[in-house]
């Protein structure tokens, strides 16, 4: 179906939903690289105007990526809940935006949004986000409530959790232990202590998992650990009796991009089942940790949709959340600026993408977090990250990622520091996950209001963490 919109005497035409969605997307370098971005602000405005008039139901009739050749599309279509969709089935994209903004301030907003979530497809949510301002994305996301649990509870109102990321370029246990101590002393680690290993060696992964589990048990920390090896490596280690809490995997929004990561839906489902069978959680049984990022499908050359046209990267990112949704993860985050300026050029594009991803993930029913980050060759700096972190705190992000000094020396990119986590909790009156907060108080690391107290590391009850490593 062709779409057209006339502005100031000029008629803009769009050949199908794939092109209309791409042209309506706020400007970003990845879509320009793919050749699907609007060629002018006028064309972008015309596309957004026309997109607002598209019925939500059309996304059920016109897949952007072919059903026959893509298992993610089949998952989206085959699991769509028409009963949940019924409440909003009569709306257009623009009408849905208005409905969201009307619902968000209400006392029953969280229940209403939760009720319709199974009836939403990623394409519907992505379409709505394209015609929303940043404040709209924040307001609606803040109204949504999505929780998950393993040894801590993620996503509760008034709280923001942190992934403590103690990466080391050689997986040196002493370096990892020192970074872990640094983060724990600043109240970080309630989402997960998660290590990106320097290699995918099963032996190295097993050693790190044993080390983290030893730390957890020695200090009786209500936490979950994860070593971010490939899902198949982790499943093999489960079968060998290695102490695995969470299974990690990067995912994307097309079958081809997921194959580039070495996974299929069946592999992911089997991994989820294997980890759940261990029954290691104490307050819940969500066992998957998933990461996504705008541009991943394009970087894999797996971004083409119906008619061979490139699908915009934000819509493909939202489709990854359909994969995540079926797995009911404990954690999922977009690594928003990690892939580089080829996909998100500057601070403005990174901030916008982070808010879009968070909004779309929460609306689809996910405990959405964000790695607030950038690479050093992007036109961005730590002030941009401060802005995005603050906006995400207001929007009710489930968790963020923190590394020593905001500088990941293994992956070579800039993220948030442990101090940044202290900032956002203090500025916005947010607290850690309740189980972790109780542990901090029990060790005398926080005051009566939950604020982290200054501690001499030499006198900390956690000092033995680094001994003998």
Automatic annotation (TrEMBL):
Its main location: other. It catalyses: ethanolamine = acetaldehyde + NH4(+). Its EC number is 4.3.1.7. Adenosylcob(III)alamin binds at residues 197, 249, 299, 410. Keywords: Bacterial microcompartment, Cobalamin, Cobalt, Lyase. One of its GO terms (biological process) is ethanolamine catabolic process. It is found in: Bacterial microcompartment. GO terms for molecular function: cobalamin binding; ethanolamine ammonia-lyase activity. It comes from the Bacteria. The keyword Lyase applies. Pathway: Amine and polyamine degradation; ethanolamine degradation. Binds between the large and small subunits. The keyword Lyase applies. Its cofactor is adenosylcob(III)alamin. Substrate binds at residues 163-165, 196, 291, 371. One of its GO terms (cellular component) is cytosol. Catalyzes the deamination of various vicinal amino-alcohols to oxo compounds. Allows this organism to utilize ethanolamine as the sole source of nitrogen and carbon in the presence of vitamin B12. NCBIfam families: PRK15067.1. Belongs to the EutB family. The basic unit is a heterodimer which dimerizes to form tetramers. The heterotetramers trimerize; 6 large subunits form a core ring with 6 small subunits projecting outwards. PANTHER family: ETHANOLAMINE AMMONIA-LYASE HEAVY CHAIN (PTHR39329), ETHANOLAMINE AMMONIA-LYASE LARGE SUBUNIT (PTHR39329:SF1). This is Ethanolamine ammonia-lyase large subunit. It comes from Gordonia terrae. The lineage of its organism: Bacteria, Bacillati, Actinomycetota, Actinomycetes, Mycobacteriales. The gene is eutB.
